[in-house]
Every structure is written in C-alpha cells, then in structure tokens.
Amino acid sequence: MSRLSRRQFGKIAGWAALGPAAASTEPAGAGTAQESRFTGQGFISGFPSDFLWGTATSAYQIEGAVNEDGRGPSIWDSYTHRPETSAELGNADVADDHYHLYKDDVQLMKALGAKAYRFSIAWPRVFPEGSGTPNPKGLDFYNRLLDELLANDIEPFATMYHWDLPQALQDRLGGWISRDTANAFADYAGHVAERLTDRVRHICTINECARFVHLGYGLGLDAPGLKLSRAELNQVRHNVALAQGLSVQAIRAHGRTGTKVGPAENIVICIPAIETPANIRAAEIATRELNAAYLTVMLEGEYAEGYLARVGKDAPSYTARDLSIISSQIDFVGLNVYRPDHYVVAADNDRGFTLIPFPASFPHMDSAWLRIAPEAMYWAPRHVAKLWGVKSIYISENGTSATDEPAADGNFYDLDRIMYLRNHLLHLQRATSEGIPVSGYFVWSLMDNFEWSDGFQKRYGLYNVDFDTQRRTPKLSASFYREIIRHNAVV
Fold it and tell me: In what order do the strands lie in the sheet with 342-346?
C-alpha cells in the first residue's frame, strides 16, 4: 500500500491522541509480531516474534536500605559520604527505596507490558566483607524479588557487578588494583549462581568495565575516586577482564545447566561517517582496536598487537593462563548503547582509519555528553556480530536523561526522550531486519534514580520519582514504550 486513506489516517491519529487508553479500540490481532508499521517512508516489518522487551536498573541506584539486613558498605556509600562529594551528589542511602517498594515497582514493569527486567545484585549485601562468610539475609531480598517477577510473568536478568564493590575489599586489597579481588568476585558469583539459577536463566557478569575503571581508578570522578598511573590503570583493566572470565567459569560450575552468561559492556562505538565499503571496514578496524582492553581480549583470547604497542612499557602483567580464563566462552554479549564515540573514515595510515572530531554544534540531549546519533544502535551490534561472530546480543541499556519538568496539568511530556528512543529503535529495527542477532532490548531506566556522578540531577526514567514522597508517576515515554512493546515494532 502506497497511500493511506483519510479515514485510515484519522484512525491512526486518533489512537495516537488517545494514547494507551485507546488500546481496546484496535481490532483483535492488531500489533502482532510481524505486523507492518507505517514510518512516514513506507511500511516495514516489526521485530522478531520472540524479541524480548525489558527495563533496567541497578542495585545501588534504586535499592536504598544501605544499613539493613546485614548489608556492608560499598565504595559508593563511602564516596558519596565524603564532604567534597556529598554536598554535590547527595547519596543513595534511600534512593527509590526499592528494597521496600519492589512489589510496587514490579507492577510498574507489568503496566508497561515488559517481559524482562535487568537488575543487579549488591555484592555487599551477600558478602558484607567482600569474601568469607556470606550474609543469608542478603540473598533473601533477591529471592523475594525473583518470586515477584516470575509471578508477574517477567523474566529476570541478573547482573553480578554494577559498580558497588564492597568497601572492605577496597580497604583490604586496594579493590580492583589486586587480582585477589577478581578471585573474590568469582567466589561471590558462584555462590549467587548456585542459589538463584533455579529462577534466573541469564546472568550478566560485569557492567561497563570501561566506565567504572576509567572514571573510578583513572580520573577520580567515580568511586573509589582514585587517579592511578597509566601502568596501574592498565593492570586494573586486566584484573577486571580476568574477573569476567573467572566469574563465567564459577557460574558454569555452580549454576544450573543451561544458565546463559555474558558481559554487559559499553563498547567504544565507531560509526562510518559515510556508508562506503572502505569507511565501514575502517569502522570495524577501529572498533576492534579501541575495545582491545575488554571485549576484544574477551572474545579473541589475546591482546591486540596495536594495543600492546600503544601501551608499551605500561602494559599489564599477565600470563597465558590469564588469557585463557579471560576468553572463557560466553553465551551472549550485552551492549549498553547511548551515543557514538567516534565517526570514522578510511585512511592511508598505519591504523587504517581516522577519527573525526565532533563539531561544536553536534546535537546532544539533556546531558552534554549524550550526543544524539541513533545510528549507533545499528552499528554497535553489527560490529560485534561481524567482528567476533557473536550469535546472541542484547541491548542491555539504552536511554536518555531529559529535563522532565511537569506541565501545567501535572503530566510529564518528555517528547525529547520519545524522540531519542524512537530513532534508536528504528535503527535497531534495521539491525534485526538484516539478521543481526539482537535478542532483546532493555530501556534505561524503569524509573528516575541516583545517577552516579550526576546524583539526582539527571533523570532517565520512564516513571518520574518524587524522592521526598517516593511517588512514581508515568511519563509520556512510558505510554510510548508500552505501545512499542504491544506492537513489537516502532510506533
């Protein structure tokens, strides 16, 4: 069909104006998995019929209850209570109080129609000292959460580490400076897997190695607030990669047969500035090289020659056995996609590519770092599938901050977030239509929360949270995402 009749157009416009309340007016069978959707340029098919739609959060950002039921302090508790940071950031001592309100929050997910929830387990709840004697009450909370999710037909995706390292390990070992922390992480991951994989089928090991290492141990902008030398920082990178491999082995050894495991990484996303074969190849080369410290070594089992040449005498100390452990076989790769890192063109130089600087006028969202380039959602999974033959990819995070001021009628009309999500999902739809193996998508975030070095200043949620009253209010983007899920296609 090349044209819409006026009546058809009016019907679609009417549904859009009425929003979710109009759902019951659609004929039975509408919005099925392979239904065609009008995009303004024609009709395209939706996502695969088994595509998984979910939401994402992390423990420290939403749970609160930092001193309850035997939980030990994390490095983020310590960091946010320092005088120089607490005044600016606040802290997550209460945050969204999800620890007590988790049943209500599961209903928020259910109202969206989400079929999956990616959350993280707080290491210091389970092992208050980082290792040694576990705290049974720590896992009790996650047992309750899992039962609530499954009772509401929501599949849990658990993340073992989302940056809340037990402070005891930072004090005792120097945190990720020591490879003993990698061993402690594996012990913790195995302990959790043994007890939860009767209900958790997918486990993400470590969230965003690149972010928490660079900002926390290199620039001092995240917990634990260190500024290590270049050589020390590269050793931390290696120890974290080692922890990834050790935890994969521990989960396989102690978890139920069939448990799927993989990392959730914010890879350096390289986009061809113009889609020519030469520029596409240059972007692939750049992606492999610029992710050498994490995803490349995890999937190839060795550090890229270009990476070792670049770090020179500051290269980490490692053994062949380390590399074997780091490259332990994974079942999927989670990709946290927010923005482009580089636009790339082919070049006649020793690297085969040139990184183009961003002009001052390049558009961005409410957060200045969050540049708007929705094509990143296509190229990130495409590169991972092409370069390393990965057969299952999840978009483990994607979302944006927005101003989110209530309108005169009290509603939150976050059109900028809807614009951001719609355009990214169109490019994700392009990826799946070409057979790129993306199995699911998790929007960041279910609700506003403590956004690390942005404190409570930036809001990423589909639900607004009044942190004084803990009231959750759906934004317009919640209705938008519900329609995406209902149709299994971009609307």
Answer: 270-272, 342-346, 353-356
Structure confidence at residue 491 (pLDDT): 82
Which of 63, 155, 208, 284 is catalytic? The answer is 208
Taking alpha carbons only, the member of 159, 149, 307, 177 closest to residue 237 is: 177
- Catalytic residue of the set 63, 155, 289, 397: 397
104 occurs within a structural domain: yes
pTM (2 decimals)?
0.92
Q: State how far the Cα of 410 lies from the Cα of 98, in Å rounded to an integer.
A: 24
Nearest to 168 by CA among 65, 71, 74, 79: 74
Q: With H, G, I as helix, E, B as strand and everything else as coil, classify residue 352.
A: coil
Q: Is 397 a catalytic residue?
A: yes
The model's pLDDT over 390-445, given as tens digits with 9 standing for 90+, comes to: 999 999 999 999 999 999 999 999 999 999 999 999 999 999 999 999 999 999 99
For residues 421-444, b (16+ Cβ closer than 10 Å) or e, as one string?
A: bbbbbbbbbebbeeebbbbbbbbb
Q: Which residue has the tokens 């802290």?
A: 91
Separation of alpha carbons 221 and 226, rounded Å: 8
Give SS3 for 314: helix
Q: Domains in the chain: how many in total?
A: 1
Question: CA–CA separation, 241 vs 176, rounded Å?
Answer: 10
Residue 31 lies in a domain: no
Within a domain: 311? yes
Q: How many whole angstroms separate alpha carbon 231 and alpha carbon 312? A: 9
Active-site annotation holds for 289: no
φ, ψ of residue 48 to 5 degrees: the values are -55, 150
- Non-local (6+) Cβ contacts of 56 within 8 A are 117, 118, 119, 396, 397, 442, 443, 444, 445, 446
Q: What is d(CA 64, CA 224) in angstroms, rounded to the nearest whole number?
A: 19
* Furthest CA-CA distance within the chain: 70
pLDDT at 23 over 90: no
CATH value at residue 240: 3.20.20.80
